[in-house]
């Protein structure tokens, strides 16, 4: 029996999904929520076979929710269902382990069979799964580089800088608009806020610049974006030298 959880801000959609499962013998909706954080807590507690989630959710969006549930000991299959279709949103969904991507409006008559098939299918391999060893190697290299600049791993900004470079390496579009791109992505995935992310990065860079360790590389104190781009170039050049 496929047990389904629905995360969607639209109560009409949730009600329609529940009606679609009425009378199904081999599947049922076991819970729903309009909040990403609440959905994550419920998935941990209820352990459904399938999570049906929109991308647009308050507190934690659908992609961040997808990444979090895939890290659980018993993750459900995840089907992303949204009106806000784009190639980027589909790419992010499949990249982080979605089994299927649906565009609203959906065919409710065929939905139970589709979700049951997703529950029975093998769990997709994600970027996080396949690249975790390589990602950790890069993180360790960045941690060492930042330590040489005088940025202690104990500073919050150190963790944000490392994750910033790793995320920017995966998707440089995040650097085009920091507040709505990189900072927002970090805030959602690391349980923070955009102002706190920006402030922590700035404080860490201030520490390094005041100690003089950046003055040979920058004529003036670098902006957050300039420093992240510098670290990204250094990381890519070292990877290129290693591969060569």
Describe this structure in words.
This protein has 244 residues and is α/β, with parallel strands linked by helices. The protein has two domains: 2-128, 3-Layer(aba) Sandwich (Rossmann fold), CATH 3.40.50.2300; 131-243, Orthogonal Bundle (Arc Repressor Mutant, subunit A). Helices cover 53% and strands 11% of the residues. The chain contains eleven helices and five strands, in the order E-H-E-H-E-H-E-H-E-H-H-H-H-H-H-H. It has helices at 11-20, 36-46, 62-69, 87-95, 111-120, 127-130, 132-148, 156-170, 182-189, 194-210, 224-243, and strands spanning 2-7, 27-33, 50-53, 77-82, 100-103. A five-stranded parallel sheet has the order 2-1-3-4-5, with helices on both faces. Strand 4 (77-82), helix 4 (87-95) and strand 5 form a beta-alpha-beta unit. The chain is elongated, with a radius of gyration of 21 Å. The model has no long low-confidence stretch (mean pLDDT 86).
Tag the structure with descriptive keywords.
244 residues, alpha/beta, Rossmann fold, Arc Repressor Mutant, subunit A, 5 strands
SSE blueprint:
Elements: E1 2-7, H1 11-20, E2 27-33, H2 36-46, E3 50-53, H3 62-69, E4 77-82, H4 87-95, E5 100-103, H5 111-120, H6 127-130, H7 132-148, H8 156-170, H9 182-189, H10 194-210, H11 224-243
Helix pairs in contact: 2-3, 7-8, 8-10, 8-11, 9-10
